[in-house]
């Protein structure tokens, strides 16, 4: 059973289609070889497992996504599940109601975080092992909202793709026992600047002047890594490790964090070959600060002011 489908219902995790979630987890984890990962995938805005037209279990969280959408790639397959290998481990597709307005989905994400915490607690109680998370957009808010309700060492690596959450909330999550035991990889891109700005304009931040996680938390934290995937230096570091990620082709894109070729191979190895990709090693080689916001939309223009009042030269 490489893929288990679970939905957040009224703040609780529920096995999709009905049944005993604890029994299903126990059966799936019993078949998992020692050392094989347990990964929870969390979708973002607009998806809802209760809307057949926007169901994530037929889309990115499926082993065989329905055709007809350019964004419908199989996360579980790209993470190494559903290939018939004995060491695949367990993948859990976590659905939550992210439909409606951004404000409705924002509040729903916090409630889904409580359900996610319950799911991770059940998985840990059935067979103790850190759970890894891979999430996009508002799915990052779901993931970080689960941290305060969990004990230490309950989470392994957490991959945030174009996270729709604020830096203050992320810092608070890292300060919890679960946060101190986790390793968080914050995948950003200047392609997502417009979405970060919209979040800051329309959603109330935990503190005045707080910024979206696209601005990064900085590389000073031991268990946090900012990875700006559209940065040439960052892509060069990944290329040196064998992950060839092409440069961006769009100025604005909210989905490139999982659509860009080569990135999911890197995410897969962050989870399956983590000993070969230590965060400290990556942090020492990646840029310490992200590029400035809007640098893809408004290229930097340097103005030179020559002596004697001559005309300005554009370089």
Verbal overview:
The chain is α/β, with parallel strands linked by helices and about 325 residues long. It contains eleven helices and ten strands. It has helices at about 20-30, 75-80, 100-125, 140-145, 165-175, 175-180, 195-200, 230-240, 255-260, 265-270, 280-285, and strands spanning about 5-10, 10-15, 40, 90-95, 130-135, 155-160, 185-190, 225-230, 305, 315. The chain has an eight-stranded mixed β-sheet with strand order 2-1-4-3-5-6-7-8, with helices on both faces. Helix 4 links the parallel strand 5 and strand 6. Helix 3 (about 100-125) packs across helix 4 (about 140-145). The longest helix has 25 residues, at about 100-125. The N and C termini lie far apart (about 60 Å). Residues about 300-315 have low confidence and may be disordered.
List the helices and strands and how they pair.
Blueprint (H helix, E strand, L loop, with lengths): L2 E7 L2 E4 L5 H10 L7 E5 L32 H4 L11 E6 L6 H25 L4 E6 L2 H8 L8 E7 L5 H8 L2 H5 L1 E6 L4 H10 L21 E5 L3 H9 L15 H4 L3 H10 L6 H7 L17 E2 L8 E2 L1
Quick summary:
This protein is 32% helix and 16% strand. The protein contains 11 helices and 10 strands.
The largest beta-sheet arranges its strands as 2-1-4-3-5-6-7-8
Largest sheet, if any? 8 strands, mixed
N- to C-terminal distance? 59 Å
- Helical amount among residues, as a percent range? 25-40%
Q: What's the helix count?
A: 11
Report the radius of gyration as a whole number of Å: 20 Å
Low-confidence spans: pLDDT under 50, at least 5 residues? Answer: 300-315
Which structural category fits the helices and strands? alpha/beta
The average pLDDT score comes to 91
- SSE series: EEHEHEHEHEHHEHEHHHHEE
Instruction: Please give the number of β-strands.
Output: 10
- What is the 3D shape? globular
